[in-house]
Automatic annotation (TrEMBL), chain A:
Domain AMP-binding enzyme C-terminal, residue spans: 404-473
Chain ranges of the AMP-dependent synthetase/ligase domain: 16-323
Database matches in Pfam families: AMP-binding, AMP-binding_C
Organism lineage string: Bacteria, Bacillati, Bacillota, Bacilli, Bacillales
Database matches in PANTHER family: LONG-CHAIN-FATTY-ACID--COA LIGASE, NONRIBOSOMAL PEPTIDE SYNTHASE PES1 (EUROFUNG)-RELATED
Record's protein name: Long-chain fatty acid--CoA ligase
Keywords, alphabetical: Ligase
UniProtKB/TrEMBL annotation, chain B:
Coiled-coil region list: none
Every Carrier domain range: 1-76
Protein name: Acyl carrier protein
């Protein structure tokens, strides 16, 4: 199967079945087909789009989905872009991916998207068509005349762009197989049965959202998702659909819980399965929801590779991972303690980073994808994750994994949360700093040193334990960069 | 919690310069806090001020710094 439209519609469907719901309404297979047809007709007026990169900044999930399916049907390439991008990151992504066509809303959250894109296209000197939507999904066309823009070849369906950790955009190339893998993860991990209704709370119009939309549509599973992060609206949507399976990040779940209570509603009572993913699931989260009356499970996906593992058991009991069928794994550079980098292989190859074969060859070698995750096999034969390779601290010739120390210290009854970072040391290369949030005011460092002494090798014991009241946060996650800076400044 | 402390916490969490944070400042239009950041900000504020919930009446309660301060402090008293 080489396009998403055939993958979904080459099988029999009850065309009246509602398959997708958002704040804008409920959509059946027939509605989706009509949406696709509308955009196929629009593309016919723009000429052949085969091999063309088509950027979508379209918050309407129905139009976003219809556009992506129409593009795939006509052998174009979808480039989903977040409407939350602002001037600098938007321009750098546009420069990087150089789309032939851009669909955009005029503005989002007060930022003038169309104006910025139009200025970019005017200075880009390449032929670009911009379709702007002011309201009601009627598209105004602006054509910028310029040089011919080269076309893509091969089976590429999607290019997913990130700002990259260094601020330089990175594109990841995906095909139908990637979405199939995401779908397999959903069906097995969430134990999908007929007439299931899933509620997904995550950015809907990115690569991840698109993969969920397409794969649930293919497996006849009704997906409900929010087009924004307006919680009163989200709660209303959730209530009106009575979804039993809820998929989101730990921080968005907390927000849902908080807003539900603040609005005086017990909305989460209807949930029988909660799946959290995308962020570290902390001890604090598991403690807060220790009495939550539904199973809590998790997925492990890799941005480049799709879903690879899921948890069979409730993660409040253990956090052991089970591999999805057709994914092979092994450990690279296994240490004496049995810890190594998890590397994966699937039936189809990783297509690589867009126009960056150098980056691709760093992570994809001999058909194996190097995930950067460190793990080991536990006594039950299950995979246990212990940290990220890039966070590994190299101290005096020894390698120390922050996650391992964090896990040990977090088992102490008076410790709420721990983050371990490495900072430069003049003799040993790096030293280990543990930031500890405690829940007993008279807890002393010495008690924690002794606790570590009994449980981990001496070279892993933090050189310094520092108590912290609040962790610095960025985008809902602990800001390790700020912590390292703080640790270095206090030296 | 005084308004000054509240301003400081918003500056710390959202990385917006302190001088831009005043009672009438709109999170969206003046502080450029997007909807997802806003959610993170609220979750973080309620954790820091140990609030189990707050009495949300409408979206207007989340529009400006002053409205959010009132929302968070009403529940505290």
């Amino acid at each position: 199967m080489n396009n998403f439209y055939d993958w979904i519609f080459d099988q029999e469907h009850d065309l009246n079945k509602e398959i997708l719901s958002t704040q804008r309404g409920n959509f059946s297979y027939r509605d989706i087909q009509q949406g696709v047809e509308k955009y196929v007709q629009l593309f016919e007026t723009l000429g052949d789009i085969k091999g063309k990169r088509i950027a979508l900044i379209v918050p309407s999930v129905y139009d976003f989905t219809s556009l992506a399916l129409a593009i795939s049907k006509l052998q174009g390439i979808t480039v989903p872009l977040s409407p939350l991008l602002r001037h600098e990151d938007l321009i750098s992504v546009l420069d990087f991916v150089s789309p032939h066509i851009v669909f955009t809303v005029t503005e989002h959250n007060g930022f003038q998207l169309w104006e910025t894109i139009n200025q970019w296209a005017a200075s880009n000197l390449k032929e670009t068509i911009i379709l702007e939507n002011k309201a009601d999904m009627k598209w105004n066309q602006t054509i910028h005349i310029g040089e011919k823009n080269p076309l893509e070849e091969g089976q590429i369906q999607i290019i997913g762009c990130t700002s990259g950790s260094t601020g330089t955009p990175k594109g990841i190339v995906y095909d139908v197989d990637f979405v199939q893998r995401v779908g397999k993860g959903i069906n097995i991990g969430l134990d999908i049965v007929d007439n299931d209704k899933l509620f997904l709370l995550a950015p809907a119009t990115g690569v991840f959202g698109l993969a969920w939309i397409l794969s649930t549509m293919q497996s006849k599973t009704h997906l409900v998702l929010s087009e924004n992060f307006n919680f009163p609206e989200i709660i209303q949507l959730f209530e009106s659909h009575a979804s039993q399976k809820f998929i989101t990040t730990p921080s968005l779940f907390k927000a849902m819980d908080l807003f539900g209570k603040s609005l005086g509603k017990q909305v989460l009572n209807q949930v029988s399965l909660l799946s959290v993913f995308g962020e570290l699931v902390t001890k604090e989260f598991l403690q807060t929801y220790s009495d939550f009356p539904a199973k809590i499970m998790s997925f492990l996906g890799i941005t480049e590779f799709g879903t690879v593992m899921y948890t069979e058991n409730d993660i409040r009991n253990d956090m052991n991972w089970t591999l999805l069928p057709n994914i092979k794994y092994k450990f690279d550079s296994l240490s004496e303690e049995g810890i190594g980098e998890l590397i994966y292989q699937s039936e189809r190859p990783f297509l690589g980073y867009y126009q960056r074969p150098d980056l691709t060859s760093e992570v994809y070698k001999d058909g194996w994808f190097f995930s950067g995750d460190l793990g080991r096999t536990n006594d039950d034969g299950k995979i246990e994750l212990v940290g990220r390779k890039k966070d590994m601290i190299k101290k005096g010739g020894q390698q120390v994994i922050p996650g391992e120390i964090e896990n040990v210290l977090e088992k102490h009854p008076d410790v709420l949360r721990v983050v371990v970072v490495g900072i430069p040391h003049p003799v040993f290369g790096e030293q280990i700093i543990a930031f500890v949030q405690k829940n007993r005011s008279d807890l002393h460092r010495q008690e924690l040193y002794e606790y570590c002494n009994l449980r981990i090798a001496r070279y892993k014991i933090p050189d310094q334990i520092r108590f912290i009241e609040e962790f610095p946060m960025v985008q809902g996650k602990i800001d390790k960069v700020a912590l390292r800076k703080k640790a270095t400044e206090q030296e | 919690m005084s308004f000054e402390e509240f301003r400081q916490v918003i500056a710390d969490i959202s990385k917006v310069p302190l001088e831009k944070i005043h009672k009438d400042a709109s999170f969206r239009d003046e502080l450029d806090v997007d909807s997802l950041q806003m959610v993170n900000l609220i979750v973080e504020l309620t954790a820091r001020f140990n609030l189990g919930s707050f009495n949300l009446q409408s979206d207007k309660d989340l529009e400006t710094v002053g409205a959010l301060y009132q929302l968070m402090t009403m529940e505290e008293s």
